[in-house]
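Annotated sample (chain length 538).
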Amino acid sequence: MKMIKQAMIVFATLAFMSAAYPANAPDSAQAPQKLLKSTADHSKFKELQKEFTSGPEVTKACLGCHTEAAKQVHLTQHWKWEFRNPDSQQLLGKKHVVNNFCTSVTSNYKACASCHIGYNTDGPNFDMTSESNVDCLVCHDQTGKYKKPAGFAGNPVTKDTEFPPGSGKIIRAVNLSDVAQKVGQTKRTTCGACHFYGGGGDGVKHGDLDSSLEAPDKALDVHMDAKGLNFSCSTCHKTDGHQVPGSRYAPTAQDKDGAHMRGKADHSNPATCQSCHGQVPHKKEAKLNDHTDKVACQTCHIPSFARGDVPTKMSWDWSTAGKRDEKGKPLVVKNEDGHDIYLGIKGDFVYGENVKPEYIWFNGKNKYTLTDDKIEKANQPIWINKFEGSADDGKSMIWPIKLFRGKQPFDAENKTLAINHLAGQDDDAYWKNMNWDKAIAAGMAAAGKPFSGKYDFIETAAMWPITHMVAPKDKALGCNDCHASNGRLEKVDGIYIPGRGRDHIGLLDTAGWALAGLSLLGVIGHGIGRIMTAKRKH
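Output written by the structure step:
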């Protein structure tokens, strides 16, 4: 009987608890519900709950709510692919500048458009005024499944497609409805889908931007540390009306403004170090603040680039292309890490990891060699772009850069840099057979430029600012990295750096050390005198 009573008490207690605390009641011990960062759940929009057969169809649905988005995008560099330099008045951009990677977009739109924020980007036939041609998904995809393969003029593949035709290679379709229902704010991966892979592969172009920044640790980048501050690209490149600040065509070399404040009208670049850290960033090492008027923050705080186990290309020699293997196919040579160091259709490459930057004076002016510029001295390396500056112009800072070297074709008679035709349906006809005459002729024709029919190869160099991969402060450069013989700043002209080898003057240094020694003896002597005097008084 006692056991029955105990069972009835337990049953009654459980019944009471079940009524008092139903299964669907909130429990403070349970993990809180994860909320969307956006105020809209796009999966609930009927306009997106259908099958889309093209990218422009998705954009039209987006514009039903985001009525002004495409108009804003039309005003950006991302859309126009061009920029008018306010100092030199050079019209820059993909259509006007020849680079020393793949040379130019103008003959290779269908391939290069895989990173353009537009659909149907097919050279001169592209409608720059079309709102439905704006690609919303390329920046706002959250699934990681959205791809725009090379060769499709910036369009995603919506049906499984064999490409190139007859190759047996199948490009799988993208479910545009699924992607559209899961859009959100830009992330490192959405920006990185293009900027990490510029120049033809992961880490190739910039050196301080590669796939290792998708989820970096603190040692690689203190700001983007995935388990720490976890900055996205837009945290620094704070966007307003789709305008993304921070341009490699006209970088901000010197920022004399203070830290930005919310609510205050501020038209300076929010992507500089000073916009957050101000002009006196070193709170405990005040002496270091004496350097901030001449030394860019990046110079000390990015001791090397390509630190994430992704190598960056340091040079590209097109003149050696054309070698074939025993089967008659373009030769491929890889290094011990599996990276291509020679391709029969592209030539020789040199890679680098943990690369120490070069250091120069930079005042924000960036001079380019454009497609119409004449090459007066073909026996000297040509600057694809060159950062300008000097120690005494009052506007320059000492900056770290990646110096990329190349050897590429130029029109030997017209004395202009040449444009290679690299991508298109007629690749097999001449490009893969390394017929330079036809490849250059097709490239120049697509760009609307004359070609004499005579070509040669010329050495080139390009400068890239190093501003990502900021190391923790304990890994920043120390005094001896610069104030020493053969230090980091050994080649920087126009400034006296104590301890630097080139600034060593025997008699002056001896006099300086002698003066320092005498000062030390004076301090010691004074101290001994004080001690003796104190003893006598005692």
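Annotation: Residues 7-28, 425-429 have pLDDT under 50 and may be disordered.
Annotation: The radius of gyration is 30 Å.
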